[in-house]
Design goal:
By secondary structure, the chain is of the alpha/beta class. It has two domains: 10-129 and 301-321 and 332-361, 3-Layer(aba) Sandwich (Rossmann fold); 132-299, Dihydrodipicolinate Reductase, domain 2, CATH 3.30.360.10. The protein contains ten helices and 14 strands. It has an eight-stranded mixed sheet with strand order 8-9-10-7-11-12-13-14, with helices on one face. Helix 5 (108-121) packs antiparallel against helix 9 (322-341). The longest helix has 20 residues, at 322-341. It is globular. The two termini are 22 Å apart. 41% of the residues are buried.
Length: 362
């Protein structure tokens, strides 16, 4: 296994130069913790374009070439989810630390295999749950942990926009990991085991859900509802977290006021909260002030790649480790199971193609 020396820059190779790969390449190239030493993609033109944008990084055509690089410390995987397991397992077997784009894998069985392999090898397996590195989500976690909201009663999340309709996954697997990873990060104890409810719709006849709703339990009677949609003409990224004392609203498309805290809510007479008298309890409404926490402007991906480096040099689990990614993956699988049980559309229109996976491993 590669020995990590904290006083030197770590060497990382990027596998995958498609939609998300260029963002990772840019942040690794700009980081004082990392040297981006190679970019690997099945499309050489696409890889060359990303390489030229980041200081003419060498381009490689196969994962085996990447794994043969001298002194390599880590790889970052930004390929389709169905390829994550095979690529990650090859890297872990070579003693490399691994960063994986969401979702961790396309099944919890494969995800568990990845997590177990990384733990046995003593390497870091980290999920790129980008929102967990944003100032807004960090403040949300802080407000909940400090008790400023009181007990969390409910969460309503909306993530809708026009496209992009994916060829191999449904809207749940495409968009819901963002909100699920946020919930796992900000709710004390993370996502819990429990029954997940889901409804999906395919009004286009595409063979996969394009509109979906899922509900997950949060403990103590609280629930979270997540709405995802590829067909909305408007883009909404919003989460409402209702507490017993205050309510927090996150609006990610409003950079001037991403967070708002409302001292508004509904109260029952505290002396009548138990027993049969609950039905007759006096209900009152709080109509207090609203305030917006000040948030610094930072590049979340820059903080994410820094956390990857720090977790390696400090020999600790990263903020968004493989176990956190497994909890998100478990909910996604339960959603797919609910859709199949209800004879609704599944997450893919055809069996996952292993040809592409084999191509990456050549």
């Amino acid at each position: 296994m590669t020995t990590t020396i904290p006083s030197r820059r770590l060497r990382v190779a990027l596998v995958g130069a498609g939609y998300w790969g260029p963002n990772l390449a840019r942040n690794f190239a700009a980081s004082s913790d990392w040297d981006l030493v190679a970019i690997c993609d099945l499309d050489p033109v696409r890889a060359q374009n990303v390489a030229r944008a980041n200081g003419s990084v060498p381009v490689l055509r196969s994962l085996s070439d990447v794994l043969d690089l001298p002194g390599l410390d880590a790889i970052a995987i930004a390929t389709p989810a169905r390829t994550h397991h095979a690529i990650a397992m090859a890297a872990i077997a070579a003693g490399l630390h691994v960063l994986v784009e969401k979702p961790l894998a396309d099944s919890s069985v494969l995800g568990i295999d990845m997590v177990d392999a990384a733990e046995r090898a003593g390497v870091v397996l980290m999920a790129d749950h980008t929102y967990c590195y944003t100032p807004a989500v960090l403040k949300m976690k802080e407000l909940i942990a400090s008790g400023s909201l009181g007990d969390v009663l409910f969460v309503d999340a909306v993530r809708i926009n026009l496209g992009l309709i994916q060829p191999d996954v449904d809207v749940f697997w495409d968009l819901a990991p963002h909100d699920l990873s946020i919930l796992d990060f900000i709710i004390p104890g993370g996502l819990r085991e429990g029954a997940v409810a889901a409804q999906g719709s395919d009004p286009l006849g595409s063979g996969r859900s394009c509109v979906g709703y899922l509900t997950v339990p949060l403990g103590e009677g609280a629930i979270a509802n997540v709405h995802v949609n590829w067909l909305s003409p408007t883009k909404i990224r919003r989460m409402v977290i209702g507490g017993s004392q205050r309510t927090l609203v996150w609006d990610d498309v409003n950079p001037q006021q991403r967070l708002s805290v409302f001292d508004r809510g509904v109260d029952l007479n505290s002396s009548l909260r138990t027993g049969a008298s609950r039905r007759d309890a006096a209900i009152s409404y709080r109509l207090g002030d609203t305030w917006s926490p000040a948030l610094p402007e930072r590049e979340p991906l820059a903080d994410m790649v820094a956390e990857f480096a720090n977790s390696i040099s400090e020999r600790r689990a990263p903020r968004t480790d493989g176990r956190a990614a497994l909890r998100v993956l478990n909910v996604l699988e339960q959603v797919s199971d609910r859709l199949l049980d209800a004879s609704q559309v599944s997450r893919t229109s055809a069996p996952a193609l292993r040809l592409e996976e084999a191509s990456w491993l050549r």
